[in-house]
Amino acid sequence: MTDxxxxxxxxxxxxxxxxxxxxxxxxxxxxxxLEALRVAEGLFHHKPDWVMFFRELLGVGGVVSRLFPTSxxxxxxxxxxxxxxxxxxxxxxxxxxxxxxxVDDKEPTRVITVRLPKSxxxxxxxxxxxxxxxxxxxxxxxxxxxxxxxxxxxxxxQATENE
Length: 163
What we know:
The chain is an all-alpha fold. It folds into two domains: about 20-110, no CATH class; about 110-163, Arc Repressor Mutant, CATH 1.10.1220. The protein has nine helices and no strands. It has helices at about 5-10, 30-45, 50-55, 65, 70-75, 80-95, 105, 120-130, 135-160.
């Protein structure tokens, strides 16, 4: 008979990662990858806005940071097909529309200052104007696209290495 407090029984119990509970450290890396994907798929099924999806999975204190607490574990996870799947889900949610009107109530915003050449600023301003969106929304979109492109590039490189 297995004691309820033993590591074996803890591993056998399902984890509710969206509640912020701790993850057993003895959980194998592959299981953690699959758990992250399982949580992402469950959340994605409910069609949240992309900010909530990002916050719950990839944000500070999110599922991924709890499953992969060290920078080495996180870097290894970011090379996995499960991470690529999560990035694709995030991209799909982003493509479905703008931020919800109440996003500031749910997710406080922060300000950063970016120094860039005047010509780049003018190009961004012109692009935002032509798309009829704010420069802020345009810059956020470009940041997320760059992260998504980097993830896709990593996938392609990994696939080439596996051939």
